[in-house]
Amino acid sequence: MLGSDSWDDYWRNLRLPVEVSKGESLYIDAITDVLDRYLCGDRRLSVLEIGGAPGQYAAYVWRQFGHDVAVLDNSAIGCTKARENFELLGISAPVYEADMFAQPARLFDVVYSLGVIEHVATKMGLVAMIAGHLEHLRPGGLLIVGCPNFRGLNRLFARRLSPSFLAIHNLNVMAASTWDEFEETLDLERLFRGYVGGFEPSMFWRRERDRFSDRVLRRGLFISAKVFGSRRLRVLRKINSGAWSGFLLGVYRSPSSG
User: Fold this and answer.
1) At what angle do helices 212-228 and 153-161 cross, to 10 degrees?
2) Would you say 49 and 57 are in contact if contact means Cβ atoms under 8 Å apart?
3) How far apart (Å, rounded) are the C-alpha atoms in residues 87 and 14?
4) pLDDT of residue 10
5) pLDDT tens over the chain, length 258 residues
6) Most CB atoms within 10 A, among 18, 80, 148, 189?
């Protein structure tokens, strides 16, 4: 799993404020559609995002539903960015600088992460990480986990354009069937599990080398993102598969008692 120093480097030059919103991209629309489906309701919920710096999805949840949001992240700079981001957006939300396996400050109605679990090294590590999520969740609460999908067609592009970035991801975690083990081990009630977003060319914005062929490929993917984002072709993005879709999401009900 990536350490806090790696994430510090990632967040260091981030420009704020940032928040996700509908219409920003079809990829984000697909992810937020799942959040909309399971977080809507009349009751105000407490919602924690793990690995959530700089809080762009937490900002969406707060703005869309009015839930009480919080972020937990192990990056000191990431947490500083999240606090600054919330201040700029006018959101009052706690930011916890801690490892997910540390003693939780409190329990939440909903816990989610959208890009953490793909960095574990083993299948048992995945089970342990999901168990770490549950440590912050009240009994009977809602767990939402998601990760990018770099298998199939996506692997070909990522391996060509950003091989070192691909190397820090566990591709086995991106196979939906791999999730069976933590679902069964932790007695989770599956409410939804599936690939969303269709093929997303904008996932491959990183280009680690300056080869002419890579520049051409990156440009072609950029154009493809525009084409697949057009109104006429949006229906194609609703066709999902582990062979090409950009994101894998699961929604679960935790056991009512330990």
Assistant:
1) 140
2) yes
3) 15
4) 65
5) 444 445 556 667 788 999 999 988 888 999 999 999 999 988 999 999 999 999 999 999 999 999 999 999 998 899 999 999 999 999 999 999 999 998 888 999 999 999 999 999 898 999 999 999 999 999 999 999 999 999 999 999 999 999 999 999 999 999 999 999 999 999 999 999 999 999 999 899 899 999 999 999 999 998 988 887 776 667 767 889 999 999 999 999 999 975
6) 148
Q: Which of 167, 177, 148, 161 is nearest to 51 (CA)?
A: 148
Sign of the alpha-carbon torsion through 38, 96, 136, 173: positive
d(CA 257, CA 138): 9
> Which residue in this structure is represented by tokens 């975690």?
173
Task: Delineate the domains of the chain, giving CATH numbers in brackets.
Answer: 4-149+167-201+246-253 (3.40.50.150)
For residue 258, the Cα-to-chain-centroid distance in whole angstroms is: 27
DSSP string, the chain: ---HHHHHHHHTT--S-----TTS-HHHHHHHHHHHHHH-SSS--EEEEET-TT-HHHHHHHHHH--EEEEEES-HHHHHHHHHHHHHHT----EEES-TTSPPSS-EEEEEEESSGGG-SSHHHHHHHHHHHHTTEEEEEEEEEEEE--STHHHHHHHHH-HHHHHTS-GGGGSGGGGHHHHHHTT-EEEEEEEES---GGGG----S--HHHHHHHHHHHHHHHHHTSGGGGGGGG---TTT-SEEEEEEEPPS--
Q: Which of 126, 135, 138 is nearest to 170 (CA)?
A: 126
